[in-house]
Amino acid sequence: MSSTPTATPTTAPVPVPEEVGCLYDRLTALDTEAVGGSLHLGYWDVDDNDTPLVEAADRLTDMMTDRLRIDESHRVLDIGCGVGQPAMRISRRTGAHVTGIAISKDQIARASALAEGAGLSGRVEFRHADAMELPFPDNSFDAAIAIESIFHMPDRGRVLDEIRRVLRPGGRLVLTDFFERGPVPAEKQPAVDRLLRDFIMTLARPEDYVPLLRDAGLRFVELLDITEQSVRQTFEQMSQGSQEMQTVFDEEAEEKFSPASMIGVDEFGSVLLTAQKPL
Ligand SMILES: C[S@@+](CC[C@H](N)C(=O)[O-])C[C@H]1O[C@@H](n2cnc3c(N)ncnc32)[C@H](O)[C@@H]1O
């Protein structure tokens, strides 16, 4: 008699920030210029899946930026800033001053060099720091953004506490995160486990967000499940081999994680979350 594999909740080891830093130091040594410098998924409207990943990734940055409601008078914190492409784009589009932090020293060095080369040194700055202990005074930023970084951090609640502390009252936070949309069937679990292991991530659960925000003293504004517009289409594009980011994954993960293995894993989701520090 054969038995049907059943789903078990996904668990992954708690990320260690130093190990995440080393992972991104290694990725920084690869040529990520080809993917436009952003290290996040794209956003495609349902009928525009011909749009290249680089453009779709900028579109996600712009959607998030629009929710920050910022202008040239504002100071923005970018938590987990990568090599600075989103921070530079935010500053160019809005005129805001952006401070980016990342746990990878090599990313910070690359981001600083790119900003200087772009003539943006006065408007964007980058600093090596751990989001679990932000090196900034209370109420020092008007807005905060975290694009695909919180899933690398050991404690989402503590990061949100820190963000609330450094935001001024009324300041907005916009982030994207990966979450378990539903129980992952046993046959799909190995692909998810490989992704979480190779890229040192944990998955949230959909019911986590409201209590996490409440406990951190942040007001819930909006939660969008953007899986269909982001995760699904990014993995499809990367697995077609038409995207340069596939090369980045191949070189980093060798025989391990493959974007194609995530096609059809509809339980692996992405959310766009907006919150606000109460006035
Ligand atoms: C997937 S990349 C996203 C980079 C950037 N937001 C972008 O969209 O291009 C994740 C980022 O989170 C940063 N990160 C991970 N853990 C961190 C931590 N504990 N403190 C600060 N940054 C962290 C990494 O250094 C990396 O820059």
UniProtKB/TrEMBL annotation:
It comes from the Bacteria. InterPro entries: Erg6_SMT_methyltransf, MeTfrase_dom, Methyltransf_11, SAM-dependent_MTases_sf. Keywords: Methyltransferase, S-adenosyl-L-methionine, Transferase. Residues 32-278 form the Polyketide synthase-like methyltransferase domain. One of its GO terms (biological process) is methylation. It holds the Pfam family Methyltransf_11. One of its GO terms (molecular function) is methyltransferase activity. This is Methyltransferase domain-containing protein. It comes from Streptomyces nigrescens.
